[in-house]
Amino acid sequence: MATEQQYAVFKALYDEEAARYRDLSDRAKTYISVITIFSGVLVFKSDDLQKFLNGGLLARWSFVAGAVLFICALGALLAATRIRGYVRFADPDVIIDKWPKKALGDEEFFTDRIGELAISTNANATCNNDLANWLAVSSWLLIAAVAAMMLSLIGRVVK
User: Fold this and answer.
1) Cα(4)–Cα(12) distance, integer angstroms
2) DSSP-based three-state secondary structure for 82
3) 127 or 58: whose pLDDT is higher?
């Protein structure tokens, strides 16, 4: 039989995964902002872009590589932020339906909730790990895209 203090430990683990999800979501918002700004610059500067692409082979190909990398970063970001099957740890209707006719003791109640918390915490951790992995891919693609764009600028200046 579980105690309230034991329940608190498992609840803290569940809350930690919820906080991790919020942190990862904030990171995804930052990445989407970077990609949006880059896309906006391309759209609003499309006239200047043609002149820029005529600046030489290095400038042209590194710019195209950077643009492709930004698109790939966006794809990884979309994969990261897709709807996931997060698990809540307790469904009040199910809990009430399972209650016996006699009063349920606190220890039995906490034991049941600890089991639910353990299952949902592990499931949510797996979802968060997937999100973090896709965000890592997106961040590396963004870094590569920025590097390619910088190489493109250097190629334009050198010509």
Assistant:
1) 12
2) coil
3) 127
pTM of the prediction? 0.80
Tell me the C-alpha distance between 133 and 19, whole Å: 17
Q: Cα(first)–Cα(last) distance of the chain, in Å?
A: 76
**CA gap 130, 119 in Å, rounded:** 17
Which is nearest to 88 in space by CA: 119, 128, 55?
119
Per residue in 113-129, pLDDT (tens digit) is: 888 899 899 999 999 99
One-letter identity of residue 41: V
Give SS3 for 30.
helix
Q: So where are the chain's domains? A: 4-158
**CA triple 149-155-159, angle to 5 deg:** 150
Region of residue 56 (phi > 0: left; psi between -120 and 50: alpha; otherwise: beta): left
8 A C-beta contact, residue 134 and residue 79: yes
Residues 67 and 61: their CA atoms lie apart, in Å, by 10
